[in-house]
Structure formats: C-alpha cells, structure tokens
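Extended Data, panel c. Modelled sequence:
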Amino acid sequence: MTISDDNVGVDVPTSKHMFVDLLYCLNMRIRFILSVFVYLSFVYINVNCSNGNTSDGCWDTCHSIYGDDYDEHHLHGIHGIADDHIYAVGSDTIVHYNGEYWDVLESTQFKRTLYDVWTNANKEVFVASVNTVYHNNGSAWSEMNLEHDADEVNIFGIWGTGGGEIFAVGSKFYFSRSDTDYIGYYDGFEWRDQSTGINCTLSDVWGTSKSNVYAVGECGILHYNGLIWESVQTGTQGSYIGIWGSSESDIYAVGGSVTHYSIDSWEEVDTGMETGFGGVSGNSANNVFLVGWRGVAANYNGEEWIDVSVREKDRERILLSDVWLSPDGSVYAVGFRYNVNAIDSYGTIWKYSCR
C-alpha cells in the first residue's frame, strides 16, 4: 500500500506484510537453532558417543563414515592400545581416536581397501590392504614392500608381537593358476613369504609370540611353532573368520561356529545364538565379546554367554565386523549399516555402554 505525504510516495507495510516478514524471521531463527543443535549433537556423538538411550540399545554410535548415493563405506577392523589410542579401518578410510574425538585421516595414498589394523605400545600402526601393508612409524605413513610371487595379494588379517615382528594373512591371486593362501612375516626389517601353498583364503591371525601364532580361514586353523605352519585338528568342521585369545591356553576361533581351545584340546562352544560371528576380542578370560551379522553380539563373563546384540527394529541392516576391548574393559565395534533402500551403506563405530 502506498500513501501520499507532500506529494512524496512512501511504502508503508500493511499488517499482512508485517506478518509474513515475522514468519520469515521466525523460520530463519528456528533453522539456525536446529543447525546449531545438529552440530552440537554431531560433536557430542564424536566425543563421548551417546548416553545409552539410542535405538541401538547398549551399543552407542561413536562415529559414522558417509559417502555419496550408492556409495558403500564399510569399516572392517579395529585395534588400539588404550582408550585414547584406537584405530579403525575400512574401504579407503582410517579413523583415529585420541580419547577426545574420532578423526578421519585424510591421505591420497589410502586408495585401496583396508581390511585390518594393528598398533603397538610404540604407537606404530600397521594396516592390512591390497598388495601392501601401510605403516606409520609414529610420524608418517608409508607403503611396505611385500615379498610374494602372486599377481595380487589381499591381506585380510594382521597381528604383531611386542618385539616388533608382524604376521599378515590373506590370499594370493594368480592369472595362470589357482589361488593360494598368503602368510607374510615381518622381522622388523623386511617381509618374508611364509605361505603354505594350499588353496585357502586366510582371514585373521593372532598369537602370543613369534613362535606361537594361529591363522584362521576357509581351511580351518593353522598353527606356527616358529619353524613351520601346520593344520590344527579341532574335531569340528567349517571355516573361521576371526581368532583371539587371552593366553596360549585360552583361544577362541569364530565363524560359522565358535571353537574354544583350553589347555590341550579344542571344543565347540554353544553360545545359545544361532547365527555365526566374524569378530572376537576380550581383555581377560572372563570378559570376551563376539560380534557378527545382523548386529548380533555375545559376551562371556566367565560363567555364561549373554546375548548383548544391537537392539533396534531394523538391526538386520547392521553388520558388526570386528570388535576390540581396551585394557580397562571398554568395548568398541566396527562395521556398517545399510540405509533403508538397502543400496548404499555407511561405516560405523559403536561403543558398548551397558556395564
């Protein structure tokens, strides 16, 4: 509306215009407040995970890796030495936790899929990948040269001793002949090929010393005594995906079934859960966690196995691929979660909060 005063046209807002302007200002303020809330929520989740009141039940989301539409981001492995020094790896991503926040490491050299990680008290980091092991000496990343005769090597599991020796396992791919297992040994100076030549993909490795190492895979369990690798007779059939132990006389191998070694024999374990597991870890013989497909998880408390699976209505879209326990008993798991369309997915780090 325009009114005239001394032949000068002046625009005067009507009540309708003023109301529209007020709504616009309120809308902008609400959007600003919501954006701040979302930002603070994101920071909170990345610093302290959640407070146990999430849709995942006792598993609180700590960090998620998102990508573009139809892009898959999976986290495959996790390992640390304390609650303020943890690494998670997967796809082409390395995530580090320093006790305060999760930081995605940006590097153009991580262009291959990363399958597993191991770090030691000196804060060296070894990451299993394709045709190489990425190594951080505490200050910089580099690619390690592996000794092998294959066209391609996929390394799925890695573990090291306190003395600086590293064992890596996976599979060798050949264009001209059948694939075989891959076992690599790093003596602190160079990598050596210890593969047995059997037609088998190995998925994980663990031990108590450089002369007492176990590897698991499609062919069951292999043991290294410091001289040779030999097949272990467990009395059970099937393949395994993960292995961990609290000592040389307390070892778990998991996959389609759970097998436990105690003193001098292997026996199948009944966890009371029908599905298989892919990851296993603990911080003592009386605190062991297993994780697997569809958000399934189990905890052994020294007396019985307890179902501690992810509790949410759509947990069938969740895969827990690996788990790690800190010396203080904090439990971290990694994997991925499919979106509703079941096409794209994002890697996720969880922390178990019900203690």
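DSSP finds one helix and 30 strands in the chain. This feature is highlighted in the accompanying rendering.
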